[in-house]
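Pinned message: reference record for DUF3039 domain-containing protein
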Amino acid sequence: MSTETLTKPETDSTESTDDDSPKMFHYVRKNKIAESAVMGTHVVALCGEVFPVTKSPKPGSPVCPKCKKIYEGLRPGGDD
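Predicted structure (tokens):
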């Protein structure tokens, strides 16, 4: 099983507020985001959460603490 690190955080959300704004975004594999957004397939976040991509984060958006901790512990790597 190979792993891949992201060069910049790519996130999406599974939790939302009453105004449909996400409460928290998750780190997911960069190459799966577009596929999920277009095809409606589910992605798996670093924390294990499974969901379809529905929103894009804005700068300063809250990030899942579990995903963030895992992401910060990954070794730098390429996109292969």
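Pinned by admin. Summary line: Residues 30-74 form one domain.
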